[in-house]
Design brief:
The chain has 574 residues and is α/β, with parallel strands linked by helices. Helices cover 38% and strands 17% of the residues. The protein has 21 helices and 22 strands. The strands form 5 sheets. It has a 6-stranded parallel β-sheet with strand order 3-2-4-5-7-6, sandwiched between helices. It has a 6-stranded parallel β-sheet with strand order 11-10-9-12-13-14, sandwiched between helices. A 6-stranded parallel β-sheet has the order 16-15-17-18-20-19, sandwiched between helices. Bound molecules: thiamine diphosphate and magnesium ion.
Length: 574
């Protein structure tokens, strides 16, 4: 649309606002409900790249992964009702993962609102419990104000998702309105008293342990955090799927709490006399179903640092709650120097314990053998030796991820893109978003046969935009995670968990990607080298189907073993 100097369509006002707020990529599945935005994006190609996906869940997951990678809101555009419903998974993941995300939804014309017009949905009602803020823009003149607020809300305090509904007539209407300035993130700083008490509590403790996690980290915050950890020689455990805040090769990294944690680490967490939780909510998965710490008052002395004041004291009552953004906390903590009554310097009184915890972690990193010809543990060992430190590993949900989380050594900020929400189908869209944003880095997606089939169509998107990701489809022919729970609760009654699968390599090749099947350990290294080379040379995805024995349900359990144990325990009998 052509207008005189300062009269713009709603779509143009919106896209100009995106530019001002530093948006360089939007993920989109078009709908007629927001054509003026699409037209304005066409006029902004030099500044904003528009990635068009095959499913809105993928567009939203890509935007979420972008938010995780950059700390800036991932931006997603979808159409009303059906598109918004598909995209809801990204809003949920951004909420649980504390990721800045803005979902823009085309809405029915404001002249028809409330009639249940074509695909009409009440977005504040739909997303009210999931998003930090939901707004429907009522006039084009308010776009600069409301879009600016959307960015502020998404990044400030505890980061999270915002939903903005855009009525068709508001986007099409012309208006004369000045732009709003670029947003500025607002975050709390820890107080001087907080920091003094933290240092004093650390120095008074005998067995302190740090659990690091949550959202709002960036590379500098991770460096600052590392400096703090080194100064006090603290052992650091990662919260569920937050294994990339401290380089796993660092001598103070002692493993992850979450799914399939090292029992020795769990014992150390229980035996600690001081827990310093930096960033995590301490959710169900990190706390083994809220069993790790006593509720509401943990037995250990407890320091909880979180970006949202309302999160502090919500589940656990800390001796010292500290409300701070991660960047702000880490910068302040890096400046702390251990004093101690005798003025100790490293080694700290607990340094021997840190070394022992690190040794426990390393000892837990050698996979045992598993049934079947292809050993996923051996695959992970090969990747550990082969991949560069800055490779990004992505995954969704399924038991296959247990091997990835347990055996891979994440190389530091941001080498892990994995949903704490446990959303299947996340890995491939996240990998594509990561590769397009950081083309020089290697990106490896892990997906189960079930997980992959929730977003496999995005191989087309990867081919279209030149995302040379490597996708490992771990095929055990079952929704393995659910089958595992089924065997534990209803031993031998297998139902609704078996999959008849396509020929995955042929499917990949049909998209123009590389596809190969690997069914024995000895063949993996060469196949992986071919897949990597294809992805790098062609800027197209490469898929390896890893055929594993369904018996190998975790690195340490078999399906039949679980069934027998459950039968012995008398479970599943009616
Ligand atoms: C979107 C979504 N739907 C359903 C689930 C429940 N769920 C968790 S794991 C799983 C099975 C995953 O199967 P697969 O990807 O084949 O991995 P496997 O467990 O076999 O390794 C299911 C259905 C989920 N977490 N997310
Ligand atoms: Mg499976």
């Amino acid at each position: 649309m052509q207008h005189s100097a300062n009269i713009r369509s709603g779509g143009e006002i919106l896209v100009d606002a995106l530019k001002i707020h530093g948006v360089d990529t939007v993920y989109c599945l078009p709908g007629e409900s927001f054509l003026p935005v699409i037209d304005a994006l066409a006029g902004a190609v030099g500044a904003i790249r528009t990635i068009v996906t095959r499913h809105e869940a993928a567009a939203a997951n890509m935007a979420e992964a972008y938010g995780k990678l950059t700390g800036r809101p991932g931006v997603c555009f979808v159409t009303r009702g059906p598109g918004a419903s598909h995209a809801a998974i990204g809003v949920h993941t951004a909420s649980q993962d504390s990721t800045p995300l803005i979902l823009f939804i085309g809405q029915v014309s404001s002249t028809m609102r409330g009639r249940e017009a074509w695909q009409e949905v009440d977005y504040p009602a739909m997303f009210g419990g999931m998003a930090k803020w939901v707004v429907e823009v009522d006039r084009p003149e308010r776009l600069p104000e409301l879009v600016s607020r959307a960015f502020h809300v998404a990044v400030s305090g505890r980061p999270g998702p915002v939903v903005v509904a855009l009525p068709e007539d508001v986007l099409a209407a012309a208006a004369e309105v000045p732009d709003a300035p670029a947003y500025k993130r607002v975050a709390a700083h820890p107080g001087a008293d907080d920091l003094n008490r933290l240092a004093a509590m650390l120095e008074a403790s005998a067995r302190p342990l740090v659990i690091v996690g949550g959202g709002g980290w960036d590379a500098k915050a991770c460096r600052d955090f590392q400096q703090f950890v080194e100064a006090f020689d603290l052992p650091v455990a990662a919260a569920f799927r937050r294994q990339d805040i401290l380089d796993n090769r660092h001598p103070n990294y002692v493993g992850h709490a979450g799914l399939g944690p090292n029992p020795k680490l769990v014992a150390r967490i229980r035996a600690a006399d001081l827990i310093l939780a930096v960033g995590p909510r301490l959710g169900e998965t990190t706390t083994a179903g809220y069993s790790l710490f006593e509720l509401p008052r943990p037995a250990q002395r407890f320091i909880h640092v979180h970006a949202d004041p309302l999160e502090l004291g919500r589940v656990y009552q800390a001796d010292l709650p500290i409300n701070a953004g991660m960047r702000e906390f880490a910068a302040a903590a890096a400046a702390l120097k251990p004093k101690g009554p005798a003025g100790w310097h490293a080694p700290a009184p607990w340094s021997a314990g840190v070394k022992a915890a690190r040794a426990d972690y390393l000892a837990d990193q050698t996979p045992g053998s598993m049934p079947g010809r292809l050993d996923l543990g051996a695959v992970m060992m090969h990747l550990r030796e082969t991949l560069p430190k800055d490779a990004i590993l992505t995954n969704g949900a399924g038991n296959y991820a247990i091997w990835v989380h347990r055996f891979h050594r994440y190389g530091g900020f941001r080498t892990q893109l994995a949903p704490t929400s446990g959303a299947m189908g996340y890995g491939l869209p996240a990998a594509i978003a990561a590769k397009l944003h950081e083309p020089a880095r290697e990106v490896i997606c892990f997906a189960g046969d079930g997980c992959f089939q929730m977003s496999g169509q995005e191989l087309a998107t990867a081919c279209q935009y030149g995302a040379g990701v490597v996708v490992m489809v771990v095929n055990n022919g079952i929704y393995g995670s659910i089958r595992m729970h089924q065997e534990k609760a209803y031993p031998g009654r297998v139902f609704a968990t078996t999959l008849e699968n396509p020929d995955f390599p042929a499917l990949a090749r049909a998209y123009g990607a590389f596809g190969e099947r690997v069914d024995e350990t000895a063949a993996f290294a060469d196949a992986f080298a071919r897949a990597r080379a294809f992805a790098a040379e062609n800027n197209k995805p490469a898929l390896l189907e890893l055929v594993i024995d369904p018996e190998a349900i975790t690195p340490s359990a078999t399906l039949s073993g679980l069934r027998e144990a459950a039968l012995k325990a008398g479970r599943g009998k009616t």
